[in-house]
Design goal:
The structure is a homodimer of 447-residue chains.
Chain A: H1 2-13, E1 21-24, H2 36-41, H3 55-60, E2 64-67, E3 70-75, E4 80-84, E5 90-94, E6 98-100, E7 104-106, E8 123-125, H4 129-138, E9 147-151, H5 155-166, E10 170-174, H6 185-197, E11 201-203, E12 208-213, E13 219-224, E14 229-231, E15 234-237, E16 241-243, H7 246-250, E17 268-270, E18 273-275, E19 282-283, E20 290-291, H8 296-310, E21 324-330, E22 333-341, H9 344-349, E23 354-362, E24 373-381, E25 387-394, H10 402-410, H11 415-420, H12 435-446
Parallel strand pairs in A: 1-2, 6-18, 8-15, 9-10, 9-15, 10-11
Antiparallel strand pairs in A: 3-4, 4-5, 7-16, 12-13, 13-14, 17-18, 19-20, 21-22, 22-25, 23-24, 24-25
Organism (chains A, B): Skermania pinensis
InterPro entries (chains A, B): FAD-bd_OxRdtase, FAD/NAD-bd_sf, FAD/NAD-binding_dom, FAD/NAD-linked_Rdtase_dimer_sf, Pyr_nucl-diS_OxRdtase_dimer
Domain Pyridine nucleotide-disulphide oxidoreductase dimerisation (chains A, B): 334-432
């Protein structure tokens, strides 16, 4: 829905008059999915705070927004969409331009479902506002939740670990590989150590065999493939998402290897048919490879591109670097975790000769109370010395430094450029050579 | 001394064996001058914490470091330096290579001196460790300092305002123009409002006529040009610094319009004669103009370049963008202040057609407790859409975002590039479009 919202803004920004119908399956629109863990933790007071634009605001802008309405079929020849609303009334809508902004759906393993296909009570994903409401109910004091198991060690898994600790729930995190597995192993290890220091029972390389329920059908334990039985009054499903592309797949629109739409840089899938957001795959700026990277940042940019283009513009989505950031802050542990560009594994997979180095330094001058450790991992091309990637794990102020590297990669700069550039210094904010520069300089010295 | 320290490191990094004599006028070496306000405030426990490399560490590295020793004359033909130590013993040293790393000296107005030329008691700059010790003594409890006047509204002035508030001293700040006058007026106004909100009596456009002393010769008030008499048990001299280039000037080495040395990009002033750090002027990367920008970041980079080159390397200093950052944090006010590249005034002075825009947004998603206001001022070239400069004034996490702009400017990127690039997002750290991107995008839409 971020993509749809951005598309509207893009079209409006060009002053384009559209008869615009928006179909939204749930009862909510234009909300921050990334904020849901912080709503459940109590950082955010109410669901309404997560909503960027309300139903009424959309209506006031002239958008015919239809909540609780699910598109069930598309006919590209007749230019129609069939939709069913929550009273089971079917409608057929004609279109000149069609935008798929259907997002992604949480992956639900078979073991999480009852025989009828419903989610087992107490087992739930964290994807949309309805999920958030379910979690607030699951964690309400009268439920007396003492133990929870998180299945999945990606961003949502780590964020929910923070959330559950802050809700005073004993938490086990299971992940089939390592936690935040897209980090270099040495940095993933640091995140693992932080989670454990805060009291998370982290179990890497662990598969779920199934869940056990009590006489009311409610989850009471998770069983691992090695036979461990972990008590669980609640289970967080955080094993990833898949692009929601059934509608387009049914009419033969091309899909990528992860099942996402493959629009061109203008967002176009076919004449008068567009896609934006988590239902799409996108192009990596360094390798040119297509990947599934469902993030709000891309969704917003893609949505704006599509909105611009429907309104007669010629915008293009410029691709992704794989930039991301999260944190784990609980019980005296403060970890900021970010990355951009290629990891060593990704560089190797792309056939690029690279060198890499891990550097330890400080977020501020060592003598300042603001100084926290920061570990910076840099990857650069051996042939052209170009910065290819950076990953950061560190304390306060560490994470957003990744943007400096993202800008440098975006500009095609070398590690020498990054080491030489004029970054801002003052003792509470940085070392004289900023941590990202120390890392770049040390790698440059070895290239 | 940062420059000298970096030169040593540079030479050592190349494994170059040098008979190295370092003459240092004061009793201290390789300390962080930028940390002194935080030492005086109590954030830093001891002067030793500010020292990056001690006398003994230098000696252990084989450096013949001579503290309390002042170079008094240079003879470029005979390749000699004359020096006097603190026992008034004169020595003559021969050299093959000579490095000026003489730094900058605080400007001391005539009204700050007694008839004999000494500083009036209680009136003091904040430049080196000896100054820091003087300030710790001036602010010791038995001195009973209640009122202080800071003369100068640059970085040191603002940092000392924070320091004095944290030491519970009633503080007036006088500046001949506006506070942080290298900021756009609208942003300078915000800093002024923050200072006042924290209790600083800020008086802009105010000149000092003189100081009044008590019967012991100690300062008791500052008189302004308009006749106001401001009580002052202590007066901070923060009216800037000038490059310390007397030695080179006496032998005809070329100086810039601000009196600083003008080395070439390799740091060379003349055959076998080099300069690095605050005694130099340097080249602005955008305009090509030479300017005096005495900052530790440049000094360290220049020192390393000179060290590399003396050891047979071919390094070059790549120029400056005018990046800087400071903060004012006291009494519930938290302001982070940073800039890079050209201000509107600097772009105009350089004859560049520019457009600029101020954008207000948040440091984190608006619904998060981490969200603080951030004002971002962007300047871009009208003809080529290149990002020319950015200034930021905002709350927690605002300041170091300037590095993203610095990297973009370093790479010659446009505001469109900055708006499109893949920066890291998560609700505690940023808005979906980062504040610097919102600013760039809005300006791009108007270009």
């Amino acid at each position: 829905m971020s993509a749809a919202h951005a598309a509207l803004r893009g079209a409006h920004a060009r002053g384009h008059a559209l008869d615009l119908v928006v179909l939204e399956r749930t009862g909510h629109t234009s909300y921050s999915a990334c904020g849901i863990p912080y709503w459940i933790s109590g950082d955010v007071a109410a669901a309404d705070d997560l909503v960027a634009r309300t139903y009424q605001q959309h209506r006031d802008l002239g958008v015919d927004l239809r909540l609780g309405t699910r598109a069930t079929a598309v006919d590209l020849d007749r230019r129609t969409v069939t939709a069913i609303d929550d009273t089971e009334t079917s409608t057929m809508l004609e279109f000149d331009e069609l935008v798929f902004a259907t997002g992604a759906a949480p992956i639900v393993p078979d073991w999480a479902r009852t025989d009828t296909g419903a989610l087992i009570s107490g087992v739930h994903p964290v994807k949309n506002l309805d999920d958030g409401a379910v979690w607030l109910d699951l964690l309400a004091p009268h439920r007396n939740v003492r133990d929870a198991v998180i299945v999945g060690g990606g961003y949502i898994g780590v964020e929910m670990a923070e959330t559950l600790l802050r809700r005073d729930v004993r938490t086990t995190l299971l992940t089939h590989g390592t936690v935040l597995g897209n980090l270099e192993p040495v940095l993933s290890d640091r995140v693992a150590a932080g989670l454990r220091a805060a009291g998370i029972d982290l179990r890497s390389h662990t598969e779920v065999a199934g869940v056990q329920v009590d006489s009311t059908g409610r989850v009471r334990a998770v069983t691992t493939a090695t036979g461990d039985e972990l008590p669980a009054d609640a289970v967080v499903l955080a094993v990833g998402v898949r692009p929601a592309t059934e509608l387009g797949a049914a009419v033969g629109l091309p899909l990528g290897s992860d099942g996402g739409y493959l629009p061109d840089p203008t967002g176009r899938l076919a004449p008068g048919v567009w896609a934006a957001g988590d239902c799409c795959e996108c192009r990596h700026r360094i390798t040119g490879a297509v990947l599934f990277a469902p993030l709000g940042t891309h969704a917003n940019k893609q949505g704006r591109v599509v909105g611009d283009n429907i309104a007669g513009g010629r915008a293009e989505f410029a691709g992704v670097l794989g930039s991301s950031i999260t944190r784990f802050v609980a019980d005296g542990v403060h970890l900021e975790i970010s990355r951009t560009g290629l990891s060593t594994a990704e560089a190797a997979a792309a056939g690029i000769d690279y060198a890499d180095l891990l550097t330890e330094s400080d977020t501020a001058s060592g003598y300042m109370p603001e100084a926290d450790p920061i570990a910076v991992q840099v990857v650069a091309g051996t042939a052209d010395r170009r910065l290819l990637g950076m990953q950061i794990v560190g304390g306060r102020g560490a994470g957003k430094r990744i943007d400096t590297a993202a800008a440098a990669i975006w500009g095609g700069l070398t590690v020498d450029d990054l080491a030489a550039m004029d970054l801002a210094y003052s003792p509470p904010f940085a070392t004289v050579w900023d941590a990202v520069q120390i890392a770049a300089r040390r790698l440059a010295d070895r290239l």
